[in-house]
Amino acid sequence: ANAMPGEEVVDPYTVDNRNAGATPFTGDGMAKAFHGQDGIRRIVDRMVDTNFADPAIGEIFANQDKVRLKRTIFEQFCYILNAGCAYTGRDMATAHKDMGVQKADMNRLVEILQRSMAAEGVGFQEQNRFLSKLAPMRRDVLQK
Ligand code: HEM
């Protein structure tokens, strides 16, 4: 279910915006700061490509579905930034279960995201506002 062309099929799950793990911003300020869906797409593509190529965390991404990841993370960011999308991916606990993600991996991913946002020209304050939405997801992403 929910596989787009070029994606691998995943186990069935219930589609719900709550799977995104955060409530969206209100108004269009954040969406504008990220240059709308086009800007979000550029940030996510850059971030995911960098994650796969990264010497520190690339191994965790090896053999994962890059096409799906780019789509679902785009939807998640777009939904949270109130840029006009619904999130159709899995919840964060299910998506990262038994992946063995450690604190250092998390910090590395955030660093890569920060550089991807900076490359798009997102202001520092808006970057940090967005990162505070993602921060509570740590507990669902990190290996227990
Ligand atoms: C707050 C931080 C994070 C967010 C918001 C996030 C978001 C997501 C999303 C939306 C998905 C796709 C869910 C789906 O396919 O239905 C996903 C999957 C994945 N994430 Fe994360 N993630 C985070 C942290 C991390 C970290 C730190 C790593 C590893 C360094 C990681 C590695 C992966 C991998 C490998 C998948 C693919 C899983 C699969 O296809 O089975 N994520 N993540």
UniProtKB/TrEMBL annotation:
InterPro entries for the chain: Globin-like_sf, Globin/Proto, Hemoglobin_trunc
Q: Does the keyword Metal-binding apply?
A: yes
Annotated heme binding sites? H96
An example of a Pfam family matching this protein is: Bac_globin
Q: Which GO terms describe its molecular function?
A: heme binding; metal ion binding; oxygen binding
Q: Which UniProt keywords apply?
A: Heme, Iron, Metal-binding, Signal, Transport
Q: Which superkingdom heads the taxonomic lineage of this protein's source?
A: Bacteria
Q: What is this protein called?
A: Group 1 truncated hemoglobin
